[in-house]
Design goal:
single chain; alpha+beta; YaeB-like fold; five-stranded mixed β-sheet; globular
Amino acid sequence: MRVIKPATLKDYWAKYRSAKKPLTEWLATVQEADWKDHTEVRQTYPHADTVTVASGANVTVFNIKGNDYRLIVAIHYNTGIVFIRDFMTHAEYSKDKWKERH
């Protein structure tokens, strides 16, 4: 998969230092993947969830560093592109306000 703006992950781990290693590992795994649908994503990341946001779009939410953080991406399976959309703590994610921004 091609990840758009992987440098964005550096911004996230600059803010949340304990996320650096898991985000680096996530990036390497995704760049090697060739997912055709969400079922294939879940074979790699069993806890990845599809969530519909306010715009009506579907995003995929990954647990990062166990239950500490959430990485939200848009996966375009037809083109093999993953767009990084957001990153936050589990507590921020649980407030659901992020859904309104996307």
